[in-house]
Specification:
Elements lengths: L1 E2 L4 E7 L7 E5 L3 E3 L7 H7 L7 E4 L4 E8 L10 E4 L8 E8 L3 E8 L9 H9 L5 H6 L3 E2 L4 E3 L4 E4 L11 E3 L5 E2 L7 H17 L6 H23 L13 H17 L3 H11 L11 H6 L2
Parallel strand pairs: 4-13
Antiparallel strand pairs: 1-2, 2-3, 5-12, 6-9, 6-10, 6-11, 7-8, 8-9, 12-14
Bound molecules: flavin-adenine dinucleotide.
Length: 296
Amino acid sequence: MVGGAAAVTGVQCTHSQNKREQKTISADLVVDASGRSTNAADWLQQIGHSAPSVDVVNAGLGYATGRYQLPDGWQADWKVLLIGHAPPHNHRLGYLAKVENNELIATLGGYENRCPPLEQKAFLAFAQQLPEASFYNAIEPLTPVSPLKAYRSTANKLRRYDTLKQMPIGFIAIGDAVCALCPAYGQGLTTSGLSALVLQDWLSKNELTDTRAFQKKLFKKIKPSFDMAAKSDSGFVNVKGRLSKGRFERLMGGYMQRLITKSHTDSELSLAIAKISHMVDSPIKLFHPKMLLKLT
Ligand SMILES: Cc1cc2nc3c(=O)[nH]c(=O)nc-3n(C[C@H](O)[C@H](O)[C@H](O)COP(=O)(O)OP(=O)(O)OC[C@H]3O[C@@H](n4cnc5c(N)ncnc54)[C@H](O)[C@@H]3O)c2cc1C
Protein backbone atom coordinates (compact mmCIF):
# COMPACT_ATOMS: atom_id res chain seq x y z
CA MET A 1 0.00 0.00 0.00
CA VAL A 2 1.33 3.51 -0.74
CA GLY A 3 0.26 6.84 0.76
CA GLY A 4 0.65 8.69 4.03
CA ALA A 5 -1.14 9.44 7.29
CA ALA A 6 -3.98 11.24 5.50
CA ALA A 7 -4.69 8.99 2.57
CA VAL A 8 -3.90 5.82 0.67
CA THR A 9 -2.96 6.75 -2.89
CA GLY A 10 -2.29 3.38 -4.49
CA VAL A 11 -0.66 -0.03 -4.18
CA GLN A 12 2.82 -1.30 -4.74
CA CYS A 13 2.88 -4.67 -6.53
CA THR A 14 5.75 -7.14 -6.28
CA HIS A 15 6.13 -9.94 -8.85
CA SER A 16 5.49 -13.27 -7.09
CA GLN A 17 8.57 -14.96 -8.68
CA ASN A 18 10.91 -12.02 -9.14
CA LYS A 19 10.74 -9.94 -5.97
CA ARG A 20 12.84 -7.18 -7.53
CA GLU A 21 10.20 -6.55 -10.17
CA GLN A 22 7.89 -3.97 -8.64
CA LYS A 23 5.40 -1.43 -9.89
CA THR A 24 3.22 1.19 -8.25
CA ILE A 25 -0.41 1.59 -9.31
CA SER A 26 -2.07 4.87 -8.34
CA ALA A 27 -5.74 4.75 -7.40
CA ASP A 28 -8.51 7.00 -6.07
CA LEU A 29 -9.76 4.02 -4.08
CA VAL A 30 -7.96 0.86 -2.97
CA VAL A 31 -10.30 -1.98 -1.96
CA ASP A 32 -8.85 -4.78 0.13
CA ALA A 33 -10.68 -7.92 -1.02
CA SER A 34 -7.76 -10.26 -0.34
CA GLY A 35 -9.68 -12.61 1.92
CA ARG A 36 -9.17 -14.19 5.35
CA SER A 37 -5.36 -13.87 5.31
CA THR A 38 -5.27 -10.18 4.39
CA ASN A 39 -2.10 -8.23 5.22
CA ALA A 40 -3.84 -4.86 5.05
CA ALA A 41 -3.48 -4.19 8.79
CA ASP A 42 0.35 -4.41 8.49
CA TRP A 43 0.39 -2.32 5.33
CA LEU A 44 -1.75 0.38 6.98
CA GLN A 45 0.61 0.50 9.95
CA GLN A 46 3.62 0.78 7.65
CA ILE A 47 2.24 4.05 6.26
CA GLY A 48 1.29 5.47 9.65
CA HIS A 49 -2.33 4.37 10.19
CA SER A 50 -3.86 2.34 13.01
CA ALA A 51 -4.72 -1.30 12.43
CA PRO A 52 -8.29 -2.40 13.23
CA SER A 53 -8.85 -4.57 16.29
CA VAL A 54 -10.12 -8.08 15.51
CA ASP A 55 -13.00 -9.92 17.20
CA VAL A 56 -12.07 -13.61 17.11
CA VAL A 57 -14.22 -16.58 18.08
CA ASN A 58 -12.31 -19.80 17.49
CA ALA A 59 -13.80 -23.21 18.26
CA GLY A 60 -10.76 -24.99 16.79
CA LEU A 61 -12.43 -26.73 13.84
CA GLY A 62 -10.07 -28.73 11.62
CA TYR A 63 -11.02 -30.44 8.35
CA ALA A 64 -9.59 -33.28 6.32
CA THR A 65 -10.75 -33.90 2.74
CA GLY A 66 -10.13 -36.63 0.18
CA ARG A 67 -11.63 -37.97 -3.06
CA TYR A 68 -12.81 -41.53 -3.77
CA GLN A 69 -13.53 -43.37 -7.05
CA LEU A 70 -17.14 -44.48 -7.46
CA PRO A 71 -17.90 -47.77 -9.25
CA ASP A 72 -19.99 -47.58 -12.46
CA GLY A 73 -23.70 -47.60 -11.69
CA TRP A 74 -23.19 -46.31 -8.12
CA GLN A 75 -26.40 -44.89 -6.70
CA ALA A 76 -27.45 -43.16 -3.49
CA ASP A 77 -30.66 -41.54 -2.31
CA TRP A 78 -28.77 -38.24 -1.78
CA LYS A 79 -26.76 -35.78 -3.88
CA VAL A 80 -25.02 -34.21 -0.91
CA LEU A 81 -24.85 -35.78 2.52
CA LEU A 82 -24.20 -33.57 5.54
CA ILE A 83 -23.89 -34.77 9.12
CA GLY A 84 -23.77 -31.70 11.32
CA HIS A 85 -21.91 -30.96 14.54
CA ALA A 86 -23.90 -30.08 17.66
CA PRO A 87 -22.20 -28.13 20.47
CA PRO A 88 -21.26 -28.77 23.18
CA HIS A 89 -20.95 -32.56 22.95
CA ASN A 90 -20.97 -33.58 19.28
CA HIS A 91 -17.64 -32.36 17.89
CA ARG A 92 -17.70 -34.11 14.53
CA LEU A 93 -19.16 -33.28 11.14
CA GLY A 94 -19.11 -35.05 7.79
CA TYR A 95 -19.82 -33.89 4.25
CA LEU A 96 -20.07 -36.01 1.08
CA ALA A 97 -20.82 -34.89 -2.47
CA LYS A 98 -20.59 -36.50 -5.88
CA VAL A 99 -18.19 -34.53 -8.10
CA GLU A 100 -16.67 -34.78 -11.62
CA ASN A 101 -14.91 -37.95 -12.93
CA ASN A 102 -17.42 -40.13 -11.08
CA GLU A 103 -15.78 -39.34 -7.75
CA LEU A 104 -17.03 -38.64 -4.25
CA ILE A 105 -15.47 -35.80 -2.25
CA ALA A 106 -15.42 -36.57 1.48
CA THR A 107 -14.77 -34.06 4.24
CA LEU A 108 -14.60 -34.80 7.94
CA GLY A 109 -14.32 -32.10 10.59
CA GLY A 110 -13.60 -32.04 14.31
CA TYR A 111 -14.09 -29.11 16.73
CA GLU A 112 -11.91 -28.17 19.74
CA ASN A 113 -8.81 -29.27 17.78
CA ARG A 114 -10.03 -32.86 17.55
CA CYS A 115 -8.96 -32.79 13.92
CA PRO A 116 -9.53 -35.79 11.63
CA PRO A 117 -6.34 -37.68 10.78
CA LEU A 118 -4.69 -37.62 7.33
CA GLU A 119 -4.13 -41.36 7.06
CA GLN A 120 -6.85 -43.45 5.33
CA LYS A 121 -7.42 -46.10 7.98
CA ALA A 122 -7.57 -43.56 10.80
CA PHE A 123 -9.79 -41.28 8.64
CA LEU A 124 -12.28 -44.16 8.28
CA ALA A 125 -12.14 -44.83 12.02
CA PHE A 126 -12.93 -41.12 12.63
CA ALA A 127 -15.89 -41.41 10.21
CA GLN A 128 -17.19 -44.36 12.21
CA GLN A 129 -17.53 -42.08 15.22
CA LEU A 130 -20.04 -39.77 13.48
CA PRO A 131 -23.50 -39.92 15.07
CA GLU A 132 -24.89 -41.48 11.86
CA ALA A 133 -23.46 -44.42 9.85
CA SER A 134 -24.23 -43.34 6.26
CA PHE A 135 -20.96 -41.39 5.75
CA TYR A 136 -18.80 -44.31 6.82
CA ASN A 137 -20.91 -46.84 4.88
CA ALA A 138 -20.59 -44.76 1.69
CA ILE A 139 -16.78 -44.39 1.64
CA GLU A 140 -15.65 -47.60 3.35
CA PRO A 141 -15.87 -49.78 0.19
CA LEU A 142 -14.40 -47.09 -2.15
CA THR A 143 -10.84 -46.60 -3.45
CA PRO A 144 -9.15 -43.31 -2.48
CA VAL A 145 -7.89 -41.34 -5.51
CA SER A 146 -6.23 -38.45 -3.67
CA PRO A 147 -4.22 -37.92 -0.52
CA LEU A 148 -6.14 -36.49 2.46
CA LYS A 149 -5.59 -32.73 2.82
CA ALA A 150 -6.07 -30.66 5.99
CA TYR A 151 -7.57 -27.19 6.44
CA ARG A 152 -7.51 -25.53 9.84
CA SER A 153 -7.89 -21.79 9.39
CA THR A 154 -11.51 -21.71 10.50
CA ALA A 155 -11.77 -19.06 13.25
CA ASN A 156 -14.59 -16.51 12.95
CA LYS A 157 -12.86 -13.14 12.51
CA LEU A 158 -14.38 -9.68 12.35
CA ARG A 159 -11.91 -6.88 11.63
CA ARG A 160 -13.34 -3.80 13.29
CA TYR A 161 -12.60 -1.08 10.73
CA ASP A 162 -15.92 0.40 11.88
CA THR A 163 -14.39 1.33 15.26
CA LEU A 164 -11.23 3.04 13.92
CA LYS A 165 -11.18 6.68 15.01
CA GLN A 166 -9.67 7.54 11.66
CA MET A 167 -10.12 5.55 8.51
CA PRO A 168 -7.74 6.60 5.72
CA ILE A 169 -9.25 8.27 2.69
CA GLY A 170 -8.77 6.11 -0.41
CA PHE A 171 -8.93 2.75 1.34
CA ILE A 172 -11.70 0.35 2.33
CA ALA A 173 -11.93 -3.38 3.03
CA ILE A 174 -14.68 -5.86 2.13
CA GLY A 175 -15.53 -9.58 2.09
CA ASP A 176 -13.50 -12.07 4.13
CA ALA A 177 -10.85 -9.35 4.55
CA VAL A 178 -13.35 -7.84 7.05
CA CYS A 179 -15.55 -10.74 8.13
CA ALA A 180 -14.25 -14.30 7.74
CA LEU A 181 -16.66 -16.91 9.08
CA CYS A 182 -16.10 -20.51 10.04
CA PRO A 183 -16.71 -22.31 6.70
CA ALA A 184 -18.91 -24.96 8.33
CA TYR A 185 -21.89 -22.59 8.22
CA GLY A 186 -21.71 -21.97 4.46
CA GLN A 187 -22.39 -18.23 4.85
CA GLY A 188 -19.12 -16.72 3.60
CA LEU A 189 -20.05 -16.29 -0.06
CA THR A 190 -23.41 -14.67 0.75
CA THR A 191 -21.81 -12.39 3.34
CA SER A 192 -19.10 -11.36 0.89
CA GLY A 193 -21.79 -10.81 -1.76
CA LEU A 194 -23.60 -8.52 0.69
CA SER A 195 -20.32 -6.57 1.12
CA ALA A 196 -20.22 -6.03 -2.64
CA LEU A 197 -23.79 -4.67 -2.59
CA VAL A 198 -22.90 -2.23 0.22
CA LEU A 199 -19.92 -1.12 -1.89
CA GLN A 200 -22.12 -0.66 -4.98
CA ASP A 201 -24.55 1.49 -3.01
CA TRP A 202 -21.76 3.55 -1.42
CA LEU A 203 -20.03 4.14 -4.79
CA SER A 204 -23.31 5.27 -6.36
CA LYS A 205 -23.61 7.99 -3.69
CA ASN A 206 -20.21 9.34 -4.72
CA GLU A 207 -18.95 10.10 -1.23
CA LEU A 208 -15.57 8.42 -1.60
CA THR A 209 -13.86 10.51 1.05
CA ASP A 210 -16.08 9.12 3.82
CA THR A 211 -14.47 5.68 4.03
CA ARG A 212 -15.40 5.41 7.70
CA ALA A 213 -19.10 5.65 6.81
CA PHE A 214 -18.60 2.76 4.40
CA GLN A 215 -17.06 0.53 7.06
CA LYS A 216 -19.86 1.38 9.49
CA LYS A 217 -22.54 0.52 6.92
CA LEU A 218 -20.75 -2.70 6.09
CA PHE A 219 -20.48 -3.64 9.76
CA LYS A 220 -24.24 -3.23 10.21
CA LYS A 221 -24.89 -5.49 7.23
CA ILE A 222 -22.52 -8.31 8.16
CA LYS A 223 -22.71 -8.33 11.96
CA PRO A 224 -25.78 -10.65 12.03
CA SER A 225 -23.84 -13.29 10.02
CA PHE A 226 -20.87 -13.04 12.37
CA ASP A 227 -23.15 -13.35 15.39
CA MET A 228 -24.93 -16.38 13.94
CA ALA A 229 -21.70 -18.31 13.28
CA ALA A 230 -19.78 -17.07 16.33
CA LYS A 231 -22.63 -17.70 18.76
CA SER A 232 -23.13 -21.22 17.47
CA ASP A 233 -19.39 -21.93 17.86
CA SER A 234 -19.51 -20.38 21.35
CA GLY A 235 -21.55 -23.41 22.40
CA PHE A 236 -18.35 -25.47 22.59
CA VAL A 237 -16.60 -25.59 25.95
CA ASN A 238 -13.05 -24.83 24.78
CA VAL A 239 -13.79 -21.93 22.48
CA LYS A 240 -11.43 -18.95 22.34
CA GLY A 241 -13.17 -15.55 22.47
CA ARG A 242 -16.62 -16.94 23.32
CA LEU A 243 -19.59 -14.63 22.70
CA SER A 244 -21.89 -14.64 25.68
CA LYS A 245 -25.58 -15.33 25.14
CA GLY A 246 -28.46 -13.58 26.85
CA ARG A 247 -31.42 -15.48 28.36
CA PHE A 248 -33.47 -15.20 25.17
CA GLU A 249 -30.54 -16.43 23.07
CA ARG A 250 -30.00 -19.41 25.38
CA LEU A 251 -33.68 -20.29 25.02
CA MET A 252 -33.41 -19.93 21.27
CA GLY A 253 -30.25 -22.04 21.27
CA GLY A 254 -32.12 -24.85 23.03
CA TYR A 255 -34.99 -24.62 20.52
CA MET A 256 -32.57 -24.59 17.56
CA GLN A 257 -30.69 -27.56 18.94
CA ARG A 258 -33.92 -29.58 19.14
CA LEU A 259 -34.79 -28.61 15.57
CA ILE A 260 -31.28 -29.53 14.35
CA THR A 261 -31.35 -32.91 16.09
CA LYS A 262 -34.77 -33.62 14.58
CA SER A 263 -33.50 -32.52 11.15
CA HIS A 264 -30.99 -35.42 11.14
CA THR A 265 -33.93 -37.70 10.34
CA ASP A 266 -36.34 -35.26 8.67
CA SER A 267 -35.24 -34.10 5.21
CA GLU A 268 -37.95 -31.42 4.92
CA LEU A 269 -36.78 -29.84 8.17
CA SER A 270 -33.14 -30.24 7.17
CA LEU A 271 -33.77 -28.30 3.92
CA ALA A 272 -35.68 -25.57 5.78
CA ILE A 273 -32.81 -25.11 8.26
CA ALA A 274 -30.18 -25.13 5.48
CA LYS A 275 -32.09 -22.35 3.66
CA ILE A 276 -32.14 -20.24 6.82
CA SER A 277 -28.51 -20.82 7.76
CA HIS A 278 -27.39 -20.16 4.16
CA MET A 279 -29.37 -16.91 4.32
CA VAL A 280 -31.80 -17.82 1.52
CA ASP A 281 -34.81 -17.70 3.88
CA SER A 282 -35.55 -15.43 6.83
CA PRO A 283 -34.89 -16.75 10.38
CA ILE A 284 -38.54 -15.85 11.13
CA LYS A 285 -39.43 -19.12 9.37
CA LEU A 286 -37.99 -20.94 12.38
CA PHE A 287 -41.20 -20.02 14.22
CA HIS A 288 -43.63 -21.17 11.56
CA PRO A 289 -46.27 -23.49 13.10
CA LYS A 290 -45.00 -26.25 10.77
CA MET A 291 -41.63 -26.06 12.52
CA LEU A 292 -43.17 -26.07 16.00
CA LEU A 293 -45.25 -29.12 15.06
CA LYS A 294 -42.08 -30.99 14.13
CA LEU A 295 -41.11 -30.99 17.80
CA THR A 296 -44.39 -32.29 19.16
C1 LIG B 1 -12.43 -24.65 3.20
C2 LIG B 1 -13.46 -23.58 2.95
C3 LIG B 1 -14.76 -23.94 2.65
C4 LIG B 1 -15.73 -22.96 2.44
N1 LIG B 1 -17.01 -23.34 2.14
C5 LIG B 1 -17.94 -22.39 1.93
C6 LIG B 1 -19.28 -22.75 1.56
O1 LIG B 1 -19.61 -23.93 1.43
N2 LIG B 1 -20.17 -21.76 1.36
C7 LIG B 1 -19.84 -20.44 1.49
O2 LIG B 1 -20.69 -19.56 1.30
N3 LIG B 1 -18.59 -20.07 1.83
C8 LIG B 1 -17.64 -21.01 2.04
N4 LIG B 1 -16.36 -20.63 2.37
C9 LIG B 1 -16.07 -19.19 2.55
C10 LIG B 1 -15.91 -18.49 1.21
O3 LIG B 1 -14.97 -19.19 0.41
C11 LIG B 1 -15.42 -17.07 1.49
O4 LIG B 1 -16.28 -16.45 2.41
C12 LIG B 1 -15.39 -16.22 0.22
O5 LIG B 1 -14.64 -16.87 -0.80
C13 LIG B 1 -14.79 -14.87 0.52
O6 LIG B 1 -14.70 -14.12 -0.66
P1 LIG B 1 -13.64 -12.97 -0.79
O7 LIG B 1 -13.71 -12.54 -2.23
O8 LIG B 1 -13.83 -11.96 0.28
O9 LIG B 1 -12.21 -13.65 -0.50
P2 LIG B 1 -11.49 -14.87 -1.23
O10 LIG B 1 -12.44 -15.72 -1.97
O11 LIG B 1 -10.61 -15.50 -0.20
O12 LIG B 1 -10.60 -14.15 -2.34
C14 LIG B 1 -9.45 -13.40 -2.01
C15 LIG B 1 -8.53 -13.41 -3.23
O13 LIG B 1 -7.47 -12.47 -3.03
C16 LIG B 1 -6.25 -13.07 -3.44
N5 LIG B 1 -5.16 -12.40 -2.71
C17 LIG B 1 -4.84 -12.52 -1.41
N6 LIG B 1 -3.80 -11.73 -1.11
C18 LIG B 1 -3.46 -11.09 -2.26
C19 LIG B 1 -2.45 -10.14 -2.58
N7 LIG B 1 -1.61 -9.68 -1.68
N8 LIG B 1 -2.40 -9.71 -3.86
C20 LIG B 1 -3.27 -10.16 -4.80
N9 LIG B 1 -4.25 -11.06 -4.54
C21 LIG B 1 -4.33 -11.51 -3.28
C22 LIG B 1 -6.41 -14.54 -3.07
O14 LIG B 1 -5.52 -15.33 -3.81
C23 LIG B 1 -7.87 -14.78 -3.44
O15 LIG B 1 -8.00 -15.12 -4.79
C24 LIG B 1 -15.38 -21.60 2.56
C25 LIG B 1 -14.06 -21.23 2.85
C26 LIG B 1 -13.11 -22.22 3.05
C27 LIG B 1 -11.70 -21.79 3.36
